[in-house]
Amino acid sequence: MEKDVTDPETARELIEGLGYATTPVTLINGEEVIGFDRRRLESLLARFSL
């Protein structure tokens, strides 16, 4: 599910809900990737056939 984080209310809800104040935070099928981690992103995308 994509969320428009340029909307301040949406961004606030995500930050409060996840407990992170850094970007990017990527969720792939419920798995969190904090920061840009190409290997982890590619691994999760492959695991979930995305």
Explain this structure to me?
It is a single chain. With 50 residues, this protein is α+β, with helices and mostly antiparallel strands. It has one domain (8-47). Helix content is 42%, strand content 16%. The chain has two helices and two strands; from the N terminus they run αββα. The protein has helices at residues 8-18, 38-47; strands at 25-28, 31-34. Strands 1-2 form a two-stranded antiparallel sheet. A hairpin with a 2-residue loop joins strand 1 and strand 2 (31-34). The longest helix has 11 residues, at 8-18. The radius of gyration is 12 Å and the shape is elongated. The two termini are 13 Å apart. The model has no long low-confidence stretch (mean pLDDT 86).
Order of helices and strands: HEEH
The best one-word shape is elongated
Number of helical elements: 2
Mean pLDDT figure: 86
**Low-confidence residue ranges:** none
Q: What gap, in angstroms, lies between the N and C termini?
A: 13 Å
Spatial ordering of strands, largest sheet = 1-2
Which range does the strand content fall in?
A: 15-25%
Give the domain tally: 1
* Number of strand segments: 2
Write down the Rg: 12 Å
Biggest sheet layout: 2 strands, antiparallel
Share of residues in helices: 40-55%
Provide the structure class: alpha+beta
List keywords for this structure.
50 residues; alpha+beta; two-stranded antiparallel ribbon; 2 helices; 2 strands; elongated
Brief sketch in words of this structure:
This protein has 50 residues and is of the alpha+beta class.
